[in-house]
Amino acid sequence: MDEDKIQEAFEAYGITDEITCPQAFEIAEKYSIPKMDIARYCNQREPRIKIRGCQLGCFR
Fold first, then answer.
1. 50-52 and 18-20 beta bridge pairing
2. How far from the centroid of its chain's Cα atoms is residue 26's Cα?
3. What is the pTM assigned to this prediction?
4. How far is the C-alpha of 6 from the C-alpha of 8, rounded, in Å?
5. Is the dihedral of CA 12, 14, 15, 21 positive or negative?
C-alpha cells in the first residue's frame, strides 16, 4: 500500500475525516490505487476516516 499516494489523493479531494464510496472509487481509478488499499488506509489511520454513502448499504 502506497500511503503517500493515498494521502496525496485525499488532500487533493479535501478528504480529512470521511469519504464516500463514489469518491473512493473515483480516486482508485484516477490514481491507480486498489480499492482495498483505500479501505485499509481509512481503517488504519488514527483518527479513522469514516466511509459514508456505501454503494452496498454497509456504512451509513
1. parallel
2. 9
3. 0.81
4. 5
5. negative
Spell out the per-residue pLDDT of the chain, length 60, in tens. 889 999 999 999 999 999 999 999 999 999 999 999 999 999 998 888 988 877 766 655
- In this structure, how many other beta carbons lie within 10 angstroms of the beta carbon of residue 23? 19
Q: Which three cell numbers stand for residue 18?
A: 470521511
The whole-angstrom separation of Cα 5 and Cα 60 is 26
Location of C-alpha cell 466511509: 51
Question: What's the one-letter identity of residue 39?
Answer: A
Beta bridge partners of 52: 20
